[in-house]
Specification:
The complex is a heterodimer of chains A (357) and B (249).
Chain A (H helix, E strand, L loop, with lengths): L8 H25 L4 H28 L7 H30 L4 H63 L2 H17 L1 H20 L5 E3 H19 L3 E6 L8 E3 L4 H12 L6 E9 L3 E9 L12 H14 L5 E6 L2 E9 L10
Parallel strand pairs in A: 2-4
Antiparallel strand pairs in A: 1-3, 4-5, 5-7, 6-7
Helix pairs in contact in A: 1-2, 2-3, 2-4, 3-4, 5-6, 6-7, 7-8
Chain B lengths: L2 E6 L3 H12 L4 E7 L2 H11 L3 E4 L8 H7 L5 E6 L5 H6 L4 E4 L4 H15 L7 H9 L9 E5 L4 E5 L5 E5 L2 E6 L2 E5 L3 H7 L5 E5 L2 E4 L3 E6 L5 E5 L4 E4 L1 H10 L3
Parallel strand pairs in B: 1-2, 1-3, 3-4, 4-5
Antiparallel strand pairs in B: 6-7, 8-9, 8-12, 9-10, 11-12, 13-14, 14-15
Classes of the chains: A alpha+beta (357), B alpha/beta (249).
Chain lengths: 357, 249
């Protein structure tokens, strides 16, 4: 953290200006009230204030080292007490020694100097407190600014990721191919075309209107998946077979919205798109004490070399789960012979974002 | 005269609409329909159609891979939802490239173009420019390579490649369980494989960086690149420089 005195020309002039002002007051008191000779009053005010001015700059590092909250209350008080004693001894000591040396012939002044030490103590303590307080305020202000900046950045990131999510939610090729199917059905089977338009619209509405950071019930997610699979079924016919085994009670569970669709899209992309044989997409759920699992498996042709884009959908899901549950092992994939399986673990409670921590 | 056509698309509704639109055009007769790349390739070779309606994204072989493997390809009309392949399609001398979903007019126009080509005329291709301009012109890196041996078609994932070797007008692709000849140039592979992974170490060799075991000085001017499978390839001075750069040696 940059030293607040040296952050710019203004702060430098304010700091040194303040010390010149203090030295001026110091001088006025000595010269006007105590009738100290001009040269001695000047020397006294200069020496004492110059020393403290330098110590004041150094104090920043001591203050930075001793932050309330970062150290215990006792250490904090002990640190400040030590600093203060050191400061007073050094400050008053050097001042006294220097002035004593310079003006040892002026007995009246030397006498005055000795008598003034308690007052200088009081002045030292007040100045120490004042400088310390000023530094703490500056640190607090900076922290606040940093936090505000971080928050803005976080919001930007969030929006960005939401936008990307939205883009990735609707695969344009899925959309255009579905529209092509509809175009075809309008001629060959208008009733089915109408049905598909409705399904596609519902699917799009769900995808577009979903706020990516919210939760929904598993029932709604599954409805959307059925819509999605039925659309794909119109495209691929008997090549796509799906099976769901859902225990009762699952439908009311909460899941992040649109978390399932990319998993099914992945299953279809690597299963149905690459296969000439019927591909079965099987879903089942299992409950545990603190979480439940959704398991999706699909057949695939292991001899088909991977196309690009493999795993990007899964990576996105993993990232979202990590953000929402602070756990990066909630999505697991398994390959067994010619079956690909994803296991999605949904904890019962999402990660609570505790501002105190 | 009527011309023979084949429809190759993995989605039934997509085949249906082509068939329906073609019904009204008496010049074209559909001889068969296929739902994957392999079947399509076989049908083209066996039935020798005049015109093929070809999807790109399909199981087994993509439309491009099918086209690459045919010796004297018929006229091809690509029909796909992907707009980013238009340039590649025309580079492969496709007659037209129609984006799904398409209108009846657009389809008839594409077929008209094919018919005039078949009749020996030179078809104007105003539509092409439009698509090419709107498409993203990025040379995509290869993910897999389709090769044909005497009776079989193999699809090789690029990760399986150990190294490529120049063989006259062909390139020999060395993989773990054999070698395959592909009618392409070294230059083509050099520019279509991931340059961080496949390194042109010599005029005659492109090697997969992941299979390199060690590199030894061969003589003053060249180096030997020893591979994990025991093979040893020559690297030229410039090839060695490239190796050093990519492997951060």
């Amino acid at each position: 953290m940059i030293h607040p005195v040296f952050q710019n020309l203004r702060s430098i002039s304010v700091y040194f200006g303040t010390w010149i002002l203090l030295a001026g007051i110091h001088f006025s008191i000595l010269f006007l009230q105590f009738r100290i000779p001009l040269n001695i009053a000047l020397a006294d005010s200069f020496i004492y204030n110059a020393v403290l001015c330098v110590i004041g700059i150094a104090m920043w590092y001591a203050i930075r080292y001793s932050m309330p909250g970062k150290t215990t209350g006792f250490t904090f008080i002990f640190n400040h007490f030590t600093y203060l004693v050191l400061l007073l001894v050094f400050w008053i000591g050097t001042g006294y020694a220097a002035l004593n040396l310079l003006f040892k012939d002026n007995l009246v002044y030397i006498n005055f100097l000795g008598l003034s030490i308690p007052y200088r103590f009081v002045a030292g303590i007040s100045l120490y407190a004042f400088i310390g307080l000023a530094y703490y305020l500056i640190i607090m202000y900076r922290d606040l600014q940093d936090k505000a900046k971080a928050e803005t950045r976080l919001n930007e990131l969030l929006k960005e990721s939401e936008l990307n999510m939205l883009k990735s939610q609707i695969n344009p090729h899925f959309l255009f191919n579905s529209l092509n199917s509809i175009s075809s059905l309008t001629i060959t089977d208008p009733g089915k075309a109408q049905e598909m338009v409705v399904k596609l619209s519902e699917f799009l509405r769900y995808s577009v209107s979903s706020n990516i950071n919210t939760f929904t019930t598993l029932e709604k997610e599954m409805q959307n998946i059925h819509r999605y699979l039925e659309i794909e079924k119109i495209r691929f016919g008997d090549k796509l077979v799906f099976e769901f085994t859902m225990e009762p009670g699952f439908s009311t569970r909460n899941v992040p919205v649109m978390i399932l669709q990319p998993l099914y899209e992945n299953a279809i992309k690597h299963g149905v798109y690459e296969s000439t044989e019927p591909v079965k997409v099987i879903t089942d759920c299992k409950t545990f004490t603190d979480y439940f699992e959704i398991r999706i498996s699909n057949d695939f042709d292991p001899s088909a070399p991977a196309r690009k884009g493999a795993g990007i959908g899964l990576k996105n899901i993993r990232e979202r789960l990590k953000l929402m549950y602070r756990n990066d092992s909630l999505l697991k994939t398994f390959v067994l012979n010619n079956v690909f399986r994803v296991v999605l673990t949904i904890p019962n409670k999402p990660f609570e974002n505790n501002p105190e921590q | 005269m009527t011309y023979k056509a084949i429809i190759i698309d993995d989605e039934k509704p997509a085949r249906d609409i082509i068939r329906t639109f073609l019904k009204e055009l008496t010049d074209i007769e559909i001889i068969t329909e296929c739902s994957d790349g392999f079947a399509g390739l076989k049908a083209i070779q066996d039935l020798k159609p005049d015109l093929v309606f070809l999807d790109i994204q399909m199981p087994k072989l993509t439309g491009f891979e099918v086209l690459e493997l045919i010796e004297n390809p018929p006229l091809i009309i690509f029909s796909t939802a992907y707009d980013q392949y238009a340039i590649k399609a025309f580079e492969m001398n496709a007659t037209d490239y129609i984006l799904k979903p398409y209108s009846r007019e657009r389809f008839v126009q594409a077929v008209g173009k094919a018919i005039s080509k078949l009749q020996g005329g030179v078809a104007l291709q105003p539509e092409i420019q439009k698509i090419i301009q709107s498409a993203d012109d990025k040379d995509e890196l290869l993910q897999r390579i389709a090769v044909k041996t005497r009776h079989k078609v193999h699809v090789i994932g690029v990760n399986e490649i150990i190294y490529l070797e120049a063989e006259g007008d062909y390139v020999m692709i060395h993989v773990k369980d054999g070698n395959y000849l592909k009618e392409k140039t070294m230059k083509y592979f050099e520019s279509h494989l991931d340059p961080e992974k496949f390194i042109r170490i010599h005029r005659s060799y492109i090697v997969n960086a992941e299979v390199i075991e060690r590199i030894e000085l061969y003589d003053k001017e060249s180096y030997s690149v020893l591979l994990k499978n025991g093979a040893s390839l020559r690297a030229s001075t410039s090839g060695y420089k490239l190796l050093k750069q990519i492997l951060h040696m």
